[in-house]
Amino acid sequence: MSDTHANTVAYVRETMLPQVAPPASSTGPVGWARENLFSGWFNTVVTVISLAIIAWILIGIVPWILSPTWGATSLSECREILTAAGSVGEHGTSGACWGVIRERWVQLLFGFYPSDLYWRPILSFVLMGVALAPVLFADRVPSQLIWFSAAFPFIFPWLLWGGTIWGPLAVAAGFVIGYYVFRILGAATSNLIGLVVGVLAAVIWWLFLSGYVVDALASVLPLGIEEVPSRNFGGFMLSITIGVVAIACSLPLGIVLALGRQSDLMIVKYICIGFIEFIRGVPLITLLFVASTLLNIFMPPGTNFDIILRVLIMVTLFAAAYMAEVVRGGLAALPKGQYEGADSLGLDYWQAQRLVIMPQALKISIPGIVSTFIGVFKDTTLVSIIGLLDPLGLSNAIRADSNWNGIVWELYGFIAVVFFIFCFSMSRYSMYLERKLRTGHK
Amino acid sequence: MKKSVLFGALTVAGLAATAAAAGTLDDVKARGKLNCGVATGVPGFATPDANGVWNGFDVAVCRAVAAAVLSDPMAVEFVPTTGKTRFTALASGEIDMLARNTTWTFSRDVDLKFTFVGVNYYDGQGFMVPKELGVSSAKDLDGATVCIQTGTTTELNLADYFRINNMSYEPVPIETNAEAQQQYLAGACDVYTTDASGLAATRATFEDPSAHVLLPEIISKEPLGPLVRHGDDEWGDVVRWSLNALIAAEELGVSSANIAELSKGTDNPEINRMLGTEGTLGEMLGLDAEWAKRAIMAGGNYGEVFAKNIGENTPIGLARGLNAQWKDGGLQYAPPFR
């Protein structure tokens, strides 16, 4: 210790002070508010104005929401209840009429699905959660569960539409046939020939043979559950079915298209470019009209090509084109060294894609992919325009009931809340996934 | 490979295709269900209730046809159609008949190749205004802002009417009836115009219906009726005479209350022919003798169907007006059952 200070200052502390807690004004809610809401005069003004606006909105909305009309059976009864409760504004009674939700929420969820069979959609959506778990939370569930995920695409439609068990089994058999043809021929000749013949064999099985086999098996051993026609599908069940199928099918299809677009094979490349640009250049509603009206005219009269299936195909193709461009963005963001690195390891094209390129490209594109998913899910409401009773279509049908004619906000509000729950969950999941996969590159 | 799932499913669907070559009547009988196109929701005309059972004035026509052909008024698959999809659904064979408050016009009949088998409701375009505006005639509407649904014949009718009367107006285009109600009540437009039946249904939902008046002018003819495809006259006859049976039943005093009594035989030969106790009318149609009896029992005669769904005792509260029997000064006039 030098005595320099002795000449300049009177007193120098020679021991450390004990640590004390930060002042109350900089911790807890107060500190948070000071730091985030009132850190300067501008910030303070903005905070006060924002709070005033929020309060103003809540004062308007909350009394409207807290309306004692849950038990009402018609709009006029709602109005009587509200008049009795004294909530009468200058434009007549003010308050929501929740009776419509109480009476119709089941219909908004399930459409016209037979009520004694509600367990089937519920079970299939629960099972969907189980099947998705190995895909979404791979590190937290046993890996054998992936076999159930593979079987689920066949269980799902069977549970929803019902019918004989042999139908989905025959579709699954097509994959098995195709796979074995590919294995046997691929080993005997070349992979390419095996692939082409395998796909052909599966297609021939599906198109020409499976129908007879299913009929024969169903007549010998009629195992099945009650069939539910597509016309009875509606409400959120319909939206979720279309959304989930489109989401699940569009990602692999989009990856293939994105790879095809970057391919060196000219024909493949131009087919992919043509497909992507055509689909992206056409509004979804146009494709839905094609599905609902034009296809009917092209097909032989009397052909019963299920309307929901037509919509599923169109929405999937639409989503796949957008997905392809999102994935292509991820591919373009990868440094060229990654491709060259994979090549230098001696990996062939598919190995390189699977082990090196795709894991990185998909990770980069997660926000874009999930955005596309959310967009597709919300786009499913467009099917109300072609006469399918999705939640928005049903809200119109409910309003046609003379008890509920004139109700707008309650129905749209309910639908909006349910959609928000789904879309927000998807968005949170994507953020969780991004955090989990963040392996450097900061 | 996911693509193949689609192909597979497509195949299954394709195999479900039925070979349709026979007439629609045979198809319907073989299927055991009548595919009937209705609206996705028009108050009083076609509405599903909380259990998904369809009711309404147009729906009653479907049920009558199903009762006549299949002996079961509930054997109907209702296919909700929108204004944009209804005609292709019928033309492509997805539905057997369309009962969706569709206006009978020249081009729909001739150019689109449909057969309108009759008129179950004579409608016309009207105007609704708030009472406080003090307007008593549509002729006073010069310079008004008008809420109007886009892409419908009402839009064209309105333009015609204002041009003929040398008046000007400002259109407020809207998409759906629900939107129109909100806009009109919020004062975004002075006048709301659509079919008079729709106006009455809309006004009935207002908190204070007496504060709004329907103007006396009806500016267009909107004969609404069921239709079938061109070229299958046997099926067209079945639908036409099922509707006529309802109308004639009212004229002849046959109702769901007394039909059991009357079908034992009466002194009126026309009732006997219609209910199948005399003659072979049912056989000529390709149906059994009691077809008309079942059609009437499905929901009652025309007057009963009207009263139950859209009549003056319902919230919609439409008067018979043009839809009264011809004897009462209306236009409903069924050809004789002979």
From TrEMBL, chain A:
Coiled coil location: none
Keyword rRNA-binding in record: no
ABC transmembrane type-1 domain location: 236-430
Main location: membrane
Keywords: Cell membrane, Membrane, Transmembrane, Transmembrane helix, Transport
Top-level taxon: Bacteria
Name the record gives this protein: Amino acid ABC transporter permease
Classification via SUPFAM superfamilies: MetI-like (SSF161098)
Subcellular localization, as worded in the UniProt entry: Cell inner membrane; Cell membrane
Automatic annotation (TrEMBL), chain B:
Keyword hit for Transport: yes
Organism of provenance: Arenibacterium halophilum
Protein name: Amino acid ABC transporter substrate-binding protein
Family statement: Belongs to the bacterial solute-binding protein 3 family.
Signal peptide positions (record): 1-21
Record domain Solute-binding protein family 3/N-terminal: where: 33-262
Lineage: Bacteria, Pseudomonadati, Pseudomonadota, Alphaproteobacteria, Rhodobacterales
Pfam families with a match to the protein in the record: SBP_bac_3
Database matches in InterPro entries: Bact_solute-bind_prot3 (IPR051455), Solute-binding_3/MltF_N (IPR001638)
